[in-house]
Amino acid sequence: MTSILPNRMSRFGKVLFDRATGAAAEMESAKSVCALLGEIYEPGMRVLDVGCGAGHYLRSFRQRIDPGIDYSGIDLTAHFIDLARKAFPEVETFAVGDVCDLEFTNNSFDVVLCMNVIPNLAPPPTRAIAELLRVSSKYVIIRSLFADMTYLIRELLSDAEEDSALIAADGSVAGDRYLYNNMYSENYIRSIIREIDSTTTIRIESDTSAVPIDNRGELGACGTRSEAGLQIAGQLVLDWRFIVLSKNGDVTT
Predict the structure, then answer these.
(1) What is the DSSP string of 21-89?
(2) pLDDT tens track for 142-189
(3) Range of the structural domain that residue 116 is part of
(4) What is the rounded distance in angstroms from the CA atom of residue 123 to the CA atom of residue 24?
(5) CB within 8 Å of 44: residues ≥ 6 apart
(6) Assigned domain for 195 exists
(7) Per the structure, how many domains does the chain have?
(8) In terms of pTM, does the model score above 0.70?
């Protein structure tokens, strides 16, 4: 872990914590997730939120879906889990966990959610998606970045663009001083899901919840802004879509 990444995570964690506690406005994407979850949710379902951050989606689920929702959240970043436990001290099911190696038995949850995580994983995303499907008995909902073609993007973490030590002579990146911001084509995502489980039904739809936004004041250069109806982070145009997977074959492809 570099000295830059914890600073960024600290800023991002505060944003998520403020949303989890209601100090900041509910995310539009949270409303979209609730709309999708509402289509399939039945009282008593067990829901797992993989990459839960500070538990900010739980606030929306309680308000829009079910105040007593049976919810568990895991995140790879221990700082985020600490914030989630602070925001929701009554919830005992927040834990540090890895989407690529979930510590749950097969079919442990009715619905498994994974919001905004897949783009930041080292490619390919096959193992992560396979794990999400493995621990779900019914549905998986994923929010991820898409493009017409697949792009594997590494954002170098540096305070100074002229930091020549970041890139070695052979083209490799020094240590772990980068984050992924990968964008996948629909054909690619569909192909790897079919390889994992050919019986899973796949629906992919755009997240049309985007509203004018500029959170660079909170997050710095890594923040997101809106231009001409598009979400942009740095020079990246963000095309967010939902992948809705059913192991029962009851979603429209």
Answers:
(1) HTSSPPPHHHHHHHHHHHHH--TT-EEEEET-TTTHHHHHHHHHT-TT-EEEEEES-HHHHHHHHHH-T
(2) 999 999 999 999 888 765 555 667 777 787 877 677 889 999 999 999
(3) 4-211+239-246
(4) 33
(5) 70
(6) yes
(7) 1
(8) yes
